[in-house]
Amino acid sequence: MRVLIVDDEPLAQAALTNILARRSDVEHFDSADDAIEALDKLAKSAYDLLLLDINMPEVSGIELLDRLQQCDRTVPSVVFVTAHQEHAISAFEKHAVDYVLKPLSSGRITEALDAAFRRTTSERAAKLVETLPLLRKIFQRQPARVAIKAKGRILFIDPGDVVSVHAEGNYVLLQRESGSYMLRESISEMAEKLKSYGFIRIHRSVLVNTSFVEEIQPWITGEYGLRVKGGKEYTVTRTYKKNLRSLAEFWIGTDTFLPV
Q1: Integer Cα distance of 231 and 85 in angstroms
Q2: Please, what is the average pLDDT of the chain?
Q3: pLDDT tier at 91 (50, 70, 90 boundaries)?
Q4: Helix pair 86-94, 121-139: axis angle to 10 deg
Q5: CB 206 within 8 A of CB 167
Q6: Which residues contact 81 (CB under 8 A, 6 or more apart)?
Q7: What is the Cα–Cα distance from 78 to 120, expressed in whole angstroms?
Q8: pLDDT reported for residue 123
Q9: Quick one: which H or E segment has residue 209?
Q10: Angstrom distance (rounded) from CA 125 to CA 226
Q11: 120-158 pLDDT, tens digit each
């Protein structure tokens, strides 16, 4: 079996490479940092399986499959590697498309590889034709927005623009890079509502958006220091330090400092 990894994230590539290297049924594997490089490799060599990230710069994984479908050649089996929302995962399952959800699990990758290796050439082509229209619809949707009431108005904001949320008595302060909003809501309710958008609780009165986190530093007290884009720093208390594990897909050479 010949496998091509297509993923723009070096850590994801490394994890997939390590698993493939241990499999006796993998004759050869290669990697591409984006869809353009993948198309070049596919034009020069034949692969039985693509481990394909969906969201990549310039040309997405869906667009890559579109182009492959138009070529007069055998379509490789495809295992999607995705960090996307839950409704996309259920769609993959319903239409029998293999996927692995990030952060990557070695066991889940192995299961997906086993299923993909068993798929025949005709099954690969049929499933790709069946699934592409659905995937296009899912991933062309507008980014999710949330509605908030601020100063007598209803505003629609992208939760991805919110850096942090702070408890202020019976209110919470949504802090953006430019401006903030005071809302009558509890920090616990906000933690639940924003969990699916990548927010984690680091203190009984603070949530942070993981996409803004740039650095953490363990302290001898058992707490952590956390810095976000722009330089603002927070204290991660021992009660919530386990939540820091979700900051990265993989922790390399950091076993001593892993939050537990």
Answers
A1: 29
A2: 81
A3: very low
A4: 150
A5: yes
A6: 7, 12, 16, 51, 52, 53, 54, 99, 100, 102, 104
A7: 12
A8: 63
A9: strand 206-209
A10: 47
A11: 555 655 666 666 665 665 555 555 688 988 878 899 988
Taking the C-alpha atoms of residue 203 and residue 166, their distance in angstroms, rounded to an integer, is 9
Distance, C-alpha 146 to centroid of its chain = 20
Q: Give pLDDT, residue 113.
A: 83
Q: Which residue has the tokens 């399986």?
A: 49
Which domains are seen in the chain, by residue range?
Answer: 2-139 (3.40.50.2300), 146-257 (2.40.50.1020)
Query: CA nearest 112: which of 137, 94, 93?
Result: 93
Q: Which helix or strand (DSSP H or E) is residue 122 part of?
A: helix 121-139
Share of the chain residues as helix, strand and coil, in percent rounded to the nearest 5: 40, 30, 30
> Each residue of 13-45: pLDDT tens digit?
888 999 899 888 888 999 999 888 998 888 888
Q: Please give the model's pTM, rounded to 2 decimal places.
A: 0.49
Token pair 């492959």 in the structure block, residue: 68
- Torsions phi, psi for 120 (to 5 deg): -80, 170
